[in-house]
Specification:
Residues 616-688 form the Carbohydrate-binding domain. InterPro entries: A-galactase_NEW3 (IPR018905), Carb-bd_dom_fam9 (IPR010502), GlcNAc_PI_deacetylase-related (IPR003737), Ig-like_fold (IPR013783), LmbE-like_dom_sf (IPR024078). Keywords: Signal, Zinc. Residues 1-42 form the signal peptide. By secondary structure, this protein is an alpha+beta fold. The chain is built from 14 helices and 33 strands. A seven-stranded mixed β-sheet has the order 3-2-1-4-5-9-8. A five-stranded mixed β-sheet has the order 11-18-17-13-15, with no helix packed on it. Strands 20-27-26-22-24 form a five-stranded mixed β-sheet, with no helix packed on it. The longest helix has 16 residues, at 137-152. It is globular and about 90 Å long. The two termini are 35 Å apart.
């Protein structure tokens, strides 16, 4: 545990009073395999790598009544200690968000001496509890203790809580940003970066992918924005003028996410294939041996089991066969330093994601050398030219001499000639400008890698930038609000490599009709007119397959409308299997382009009004529920049902006044644990059936679709275990503005 960024540092030196938190933390660390590390760090000089006293040592010293050099926040804060010098900083929303990378972080500490810290925006007090009835602050303390035990197994003793509230589950990043106060939380994150000066920032997926927690999205966006803001003295300047901190720019930015084909065994880093070839990905194999003789994958699994409150205590053992163990995969978003070229041995080594920032592969330029490729927009039109800049910064000791920089682009592209610089002094930055021209045949919407190769007397270096080939005129079906907001954010951050993470999908009721707004974008310098043609998927029809547009002004947008009907009601609904791809083709004077879209069919039903309100008594009498019986036998998580006796379900619904009535009968061959009715989270801690509702009235409404399992952990089985009908009276809530 280290210093919390919730308030400016104080210059006074009070004596740390023994507290229950400090005593508990000290006793917790004493049980961990890395407890000796905390004690060793306590004697290091502040400011040196691993220099400040670790939390466990601080807690012990406080309990003994010794004076401590305490430059932390005041009593209102919850984390005490002196800022430390970190190599890696992970930013997550809740305790356990870092759990999928602990084998990597532990191995980096063991092999390269890298000290990692973890920012946890909340204490997870709003989540589920599979271990007991604690909720709110009590649950937050429970989960914080679980996190400290878990990360301690990877040698991590620096955990920073930003003390933001963990409210109810939401997929909304805008709501999370509002509740957390985005700017305040960003300031706290920036403060920790400026205090601890990590070379590498690691975080989660910032996109509204299906099932992605809005808190996770916001935590990732905070990390990405903080990566840029921490080195800018105009951002949160009071931290510099009042608190005595200095602007600091981390070297590399990584996401703990990967899209593509993974692999198993010791070559899993080399054998992985990204879905987007322009991405820089890294893998760290979990089969290497940890200090206690286990594999790091086994250590990570043991750490994950510490999260008993999240139902992880029963996670199975990892395979004993090294060939069946895989990698933790990371995707690079940005780098300010040279790093290994994709496909090289250095890139697939366990420190590939650290190289250039914390480790120096053989033959490369000294640590501290800066090399960054940038583009004003990150985009280029087919047949057009774009400017690319390469900034070279000399290392602190000696600088660089006889520097040559050459740009490389895909086959068929042209780039300007290599450039030479006699020397780049220590701390000096020289910016070289190149011109990159895309061929007229470049595929619109594709991402391409433009790389810079540096040679000097001191060594070589490599860096790259992703450019997006923009279609001259393109059509895009209406994006879901959260996806549109994410795309706007990627443009504001100049991160085109993150654009398109979420496929454009709109929901549509099975057997229903939907009007689809389509946005037509003109990326050229002249007005454009033409036609948009829809090719609906099999089982769907469009009222008109071609619609004219324009003229749309240069760099402007317009809208056309299509009406689509699902004619084949036998098609699958929901996930998986309910997405149906189709295309939109746009013609103009600048040419034609085709984009891929999709519709997701969801089940629907009509609920008639009841003549008399049904009794909420667990009994379904004939004619009591006016709606048709709905088959709920589909298992949303866990193993498939083998028969109706194994697991099956039926539901009925009706409405009266402003109340929606739902009755459900669920059959299972195994009875779940019965919990007390005053346990308000028992539906999360045992098998249950749920009846979420967002609308009222006699309207044709899609049923709630199933939640897609998270990829960060094995799914939990949640089956209802009652063999008698249950009835629910629901007053539909008002839609939240977010």
């Amino acid at each position: 545990m280290s210093y919390t960024a919730g308030a400016p540092r104080r210059t006074s030196r009070p004596t740390l009073r023994p507290t229950a938190r400090a005593l508990c933390l000290a006793s917790t660390l004493a049980l961990l395999p890395w407890a000796g590390v905390a004690a060793a760090h306590a004697d290091s000089a502040p400011g040196a790598p691993g220099g400040a006293a670790a939390a466990g040592a601080v807690g012990v010293a406080g309990a003994a009544g010794a004076a401590v050099d305490h430059r932390g926040p005041g009593r209102a804060q919850t984390s005490l200690g002196t800022p430390v010098d970190l190599g890696v900083l992970f930013v997550g929303a809740h305790p356990d968000d870092e759990a999928g990378t602990l084998s990597t972080l532990g191995e980096w500490k063991q092999r390269y001496g890298v000290r990692t810290g973890v920012i946890t925006v909340t204490r997870g007090e709003g989540g589920g509890n599979a271990a007991g009835p604690q909720e709110g602050p009590a649950l937050g303390l429970l989960r914080e203790a679980e996190e400290r035990r878990a990360v301690g197994m990877a040698g991590i003793t620096d955990v920073f809580n930003l003390d933001k509230v963990d409210f109810y589950y939401t997929v909304s990043e805008p709501l999370t940003a509002q509740v957390w106060d985005h700017e305040d939380t960003l300031a706290r994150t920036v403060r920790i970066i400026r205090q601890t000066r990590p070379e590498v920032i690691m975080t989660m997926n910032p996109a509204p992918s299906p099932g992605q927690h809005g808190n996770h999205q916001e935590a990732a966006r905070l990390a990405i924005e903080a990566y840029a803001a921490a080195g800018d003295p105009t951002r949160f300047p009071e931290q510099i003028t009042r608190e005595g901190l200095k602007a600091f720019s981390p070297s590399r930015l990584l996401l703990r996410t990967f899209a593509g084909t993974t692999a198993l065994g010791p070559t899993c880093a080399k054998d992985a294939v990204p879905a987007d070839p322009s991405q820089d990905i890294y893998g760290v194999y979990g089969g290497t041996t940890a200090p206690d003789g286990r594999t790091w994958a086994a250590v990570e699994r043991a750490a994950q089991r510490q999260y008993v409150s999240q139902g992880w205590g029963g996670f199975p053992d990892v395979p004993a066969d090294p060939a069946q163990l895989g990698c933790d995969y990371l995707t690079q978003v940005d780098s300010r330093v040279p790093y290994p070229a994709p496909g090289t041995d250095a890139a697939t080594a366990s420190d590939g994601a650290l190289a250039g920032a914390l480790t120096r592969p053989a033959g490369t330029v000294p640590l501290g050398t800066g090399l960054r490729v940038s583009s004003p927009t990150g985009t280029v039109l087919p047949g057009a030219a774009s400017t690319v800049s390469v900034a070279v910064t000399g290392p602190a000791r000696g600088g660089l001499s006889d520097v040559r920089v050459a740009l490389t682009a895909p086959a068929g592209w042209t780039v300007s000639a290599p450039q030479r610089v006699h020397g780049v002094g220590s701390g000096q930055t020289r910016t070289l400008t190149f011109t990159v021209t895309a061929p007229a045949s470049a595929a619109g919407g594709s991402h391409v890698r433009v790389s810079a190769d540096l040679t000097s007397r001191q060594g070589r270096g490599y860096a790259a930038r992703t450019l997006t080939v923009t279609r001259p005129v393109s059509a895009q079906q209406q994006l879901l609000p959260q996806v549109a907001q994410f795309e706007s954010w990627t443009k504001a951050q100049n991160l085109p490599q993150l654009s398109g993470i979420v496929a454009p999908v709109l929901t549509m009721a099975s057997g229903g009709t939907r009007t689809i707004p389509v946005t037509v974008t003109n990326a050229t310098d002249a007005p454009q007119s033409g036609t948009v043609t829809i090719k609906p998927p099999a089982g769907f029809t469009a009222k008109a397959t071609g619609v004219s547009y324009g003229p749309i002004p240069a760099h402007g947008t317009g809208t056309v409308m299509f009406t689509v009907t699902n004619t084949d009601t036998s098609l699958k609904t929901g996930a998986p299997g309910g997405d149906y791809a189709y295309t939109l083709t746009t013609t103009s004077a600048a040419g034609s382009s085709t984009t891929n879209q999709a519709l997701e069919l969801v089940p629907s039903t009509t609920i008639p009004k009841a003549t008399t309100a049904p009794k909420v008594d667990g009994v379904v009498s004939p004619g009591e529920y006016t709606g048709a019986a709905m088959d709920l036998s589909r298992v949303w998580e866990g193993a498939a049902c083998t028969s109706a006796a194994d697991c099956s379900g039926t539901a009925w619904a009706t409405w009266s006044g402003d109340t929606l009535y739902i009755a459900a009968k669920v059959v299972d061959d195994t009875l779940g644990t019965r919990l007390a009715t005053n346990d308000c989270k028992r539906h999360w801690r045992t098998d249950s059936s749920r009846s979420p509702s967002t609308r009222a009235g006699p309207r044709r409404t899609p049923r709630r679709r199933s939640r897609r399992p998270s990829s960060r952990s094995p799914p939990r089985v949640r089956r209802a275990r009652c063999a008698t009908p249950t009835t629910t009276r629901v007053r539909p809530p008002r839609p939240h503005p977010a």
